Amino acid sequence: MLKTTEAPILETVRQSSPDAKAAILAEIMRERIVEQQDGELISILDKTGERLGTFVPSSRFQSTRKTPPELTPGERAELQHRYENRDKSFSVETMLKSLDLDDPAPSSKL
User: Fold this and answer.
1) Has residue 92 got a pLDDT over 90?
2) Residue 99 to residue 71: CA distance in whole angstroms
3) What is this structure's pTM?
4) In degrees rounded to 5, what are phi and psi of residue 101?
């Protein structure tokens, strides 16, 4: 959420030339890379929290981390579930046969 003191800055950016906007964005991303310090991907979110995209720092800013990032309990549970059920997979062809479709090529219906 923008502070009231930041609104004039945003309006100035909106009125800037494309080249000035590019320079401003580059400077902001450079600061975000330094703030993050680990070279990981940076999510770009709008004011509602919707993801606009992901910024991938150039290779010279990439992480030198030797260990993976910490997982949330939900992420850990999902990985554990996938590991425990790794032998319960099947091919697309097997799934289509189990559905007993007249036409096993669903792409032909597109």
Assistant:
1) no
2) 36
3) 0.47
4) -80, 145
